[in-house]
Amino acid sequence: MDEIQYTLRVNAVPRTVRTEPRKLLLDVLREEVGLTGPHAGCEHGVCGACTVLLDGKSVRSCLMFGVQAAGHEVRTIESLATGDRLHPLQQAFSDSYALQCGFCTPGMIMTALELLNDVPDPTPDQVRETLSGNLCRCTGYGPIVDAVIAAGKRMREGSTTA
């Protein structure tokens, strides 16, 4: 199959890639751009491990073609920390022991970031509903909900420039 060239913005940086049109956004991010935060889990859009933000909205990068992101802003987990300073969501996940193996964490955090950008002070039920499409086999979800609530408070207090 012939390759095509297109440009997308990844973490605020324009990236021009040349790939087959059928290449998934997940594979473009991992193989062409070199960002390994989004994980290939189920590859059916069920687990949420590959979640990134596309123009500020969470999407499963395993369910869309990279070319569909052409001209759009893609944000991955790699965009959150500033040097050694973790984003409040990352710090809250660490502080709340909301990660264990870490496989689901990038998708959880990106999904939670969309929620906190839209609803700065969510209820635990809103967090659970939002994260219901992200699977975690290690934590039992309680610490994750606590972490999102704590991060929301930190973000409202101005501890980040998310």
| Lateral arrangement of strands in the main beta sheet | 2-1-5-3-4
As a whole number of angstroms, the C-alpha radius of gyration is: 16 Å
Total number of beta strands: 5
CATH architecture classification name of the largest domain: Roll
Averaging pLDDT over every residue, what do you get? 95
Describe the structure.
There is one protein chain. The chain is built from five helices and five strands. It has 162 residues and is of the alpha+beta class. The protein folds into two domains: 4-79, Beta-grasp domain (Ubiquitin-like (UB roll)), CATH 3.10.20; 88-156, [2Fe-2S]-binding domain (DNA polymerase, domain 1, Orthogonal Bundle). Strands 2-1-5-3-4 form a five-stranded mixed β-sheet, with helices on both faces. α2 (88-95) crosses α5 (142-156) and α3 packs across α5 (142-156). The longest helix is centred in the last third of the chain and has 15 residues, at 142-156. The chain is globular.
Question: What's the structural blueprint in terms of helices and strands?
Answer:
Blueprint: E1 4-10, E2 13-19, H1 25-32, E3 51-54, E4 57-60, E5 73-75, H2 88-95, H3 105-118, H4 124-131, H5 142-156
Parallel strand pairs: 1-5
Antiparallel strand pairs: 1-2, 3-4, 3-5
List keywords for this structure.
2 domains; five-stranded mixed β-sheet; 15% strand; alpha+beta; Ubiquitin-like (UB roll); globular; 5 helices; 162 residues; DNA polymerase, domain 1
Task: Give a short synopsis of this structure.
This protein is an alpha+beta fold and 162 residues long.
